[in-house]
Amino acid sequence: FRGAWIATVGNIDWPSKPGLPVAEQKAELISLLDRAVQLKLNAVIFQVRPASDALYASPLEPWSEYLTGTQGKMPVPFYDPLAFAITEAHQRGLELHAWFNPFRGRHFASKSPIALNHISRTHPELVRTYGDQLWIDPGEPAARAFVSNVVMDVVKRYDVDGVQFDDYFYPYAEKDAAGHEIDFPDTATWRKYGLPRHLDRDDWRRDNINVFVKNIYHAIKAAK
After folding, report:
1. What is the structure's pLDDT at 166?
2. What phi and psi values does residue 189 have, to the nearest 5 degrees?
3. What is the spatial distance between Cα 76 and Cα 110, in angstroms, rounded to a whole number?
């Protein structure tokens, strides 16, 4: 396995900036795939869901602002970046893995207004504010189910060769102005779901992620 990540969050790798014409977006993506072939890679890991948004035509979440500059606005003329990436990657002998950030709700550098079909609007009870970002609470069974449905929608509708998660499940610790660590605001969730199982909060958090990954794994195996 010789792969490279193609990050879309903050326009790190692709597209180089929001609002590029569709032809330029496609040309940039083809250039990245051609470079992967030149480097003798055999896979690319394409970030399709950086912050509860979508770099593909999702029935569940809004279009990413990293495409057009406005969350919820589709590319014009219309195309599906994930479908396009899969086709171009496979034509070059590359695997295309869909990379999801499962629980980040909104990135700190986001500029676009939040779309009406973003989870923070449709299911605010599942979302927590932590530092300068929004996060989906992994301790909520309904939150894990929502993210699982997002992943499985892609697995079932697109010819992806794999599903990847990065290291963002619970967020890295934030600190206040005095330098003191701020705890993630899931006390009520822990009391509801963790305390009855006699789990301390850290063990409960780890178990939430273990359950999430296990369920995704079995769902993908069953779908394929």
Report:
1. 86
2. -65, -45
3. 21
